[in-house]
Amino acid sequence: MQDKNFDTLSQKFAQNIYGTTKGEIRAAVLWRDLSPALTRLNKPRLRILDAGGGFGFLSQKLAALGHDVVLCDISEQMLAIAQQQIAASDTELSIELVHSPIQALTVQQFGQFDVILCHAVAEWLTDAESTLHGLLSLLKPNGLFSLMFFNKEALRFHSLISGNFDYVKRDFKVKKKVGLTPNHPLYIADVRAWFAQWQLSMISQSGVRVINDYLKNNLPPNFDKHQLIEMELAYSQREPYLSLGRYVHFLGQSKPI
Are the CB atoms for 251 and 144 separated by under 8 Å? Predict the structure, then answer.
């Protein structure tokens, strides 16, 4: 079984990720978590790897701050979108585009990075644990590892409250795959255990979309998207809401030398 390649879905995927309220929530939570941690590294120019970063939303944001980014993706179409956006940027962006599976990245070719981002990738991998562990060979001592993954229990809970009991009974297996539901959602406890095994100290833990995906259809007339994002940020790091996030963001730090 192969890892998912989004070549055929690149435009749909790009629009669904950051061109919606869901995307705004995702960006707000990730940036809230990352920003202070990047500052604490106390380096004006960081080397950053965006592993499986698609069209590089965060790559572009980080490069605009003066950091050097390697954006790697298996999808040629996603990287073509990235190239267009980089070329259209008002700011000169230091971004190297690499068309490759993330498993093929080596220290010999790319050296090590101060920060590795791997967002919404793990749940599409046939062997997430070994692939993510392999990525850590490219992380410098005291470096940051930012992992956002699709939460299997949130998928279960959302399906239960939607009345999709047969889907839950089949362990989320369907005859015909539709939409962008990932193939291999992960359990929070498993990923926490991986971080401990890899000797990454946990800097922060957040749920991503702890409210949005559970909103009722009949919202109050004064419903405000900006207030929703404010509430998402307020509750994303509190239980039980964190564990109900459609995605979960873990930010870990490798051991110093």
Answer: yes
Task: Give the integer Cα–Cα distance in Å for 114 and 231.
Answer: 31
Percent of the chain with pLDDT over 70: 91
Buried b (16+ CB within 10 A) or exposed e, 112-121: ebbbbbbbbb
- Report the distance separating Cα 139 and Cα 173, nearest Å: 35
Spell out the long-range contacts of 35-38 with Cβ–Cβ below 8 A and sequence spacing 24 or more.
Answer: 37/144, 37/203, 37/204, 37/251, 37/253, 38/115, 38/144
Number of helical H runs and strand E runs in the chain? 10, 7
The pLDDT score that the predictor gives to residue 146 is 98
pTM above 0.90, yes or no: yes
Residue 207 Cα to chain centre, angstroms = 11
Q: How far from the centroid of its chain's Cα atoms is residue 57's Cα?
A: 11
Stretch 184-212: mean pLDDT: 98
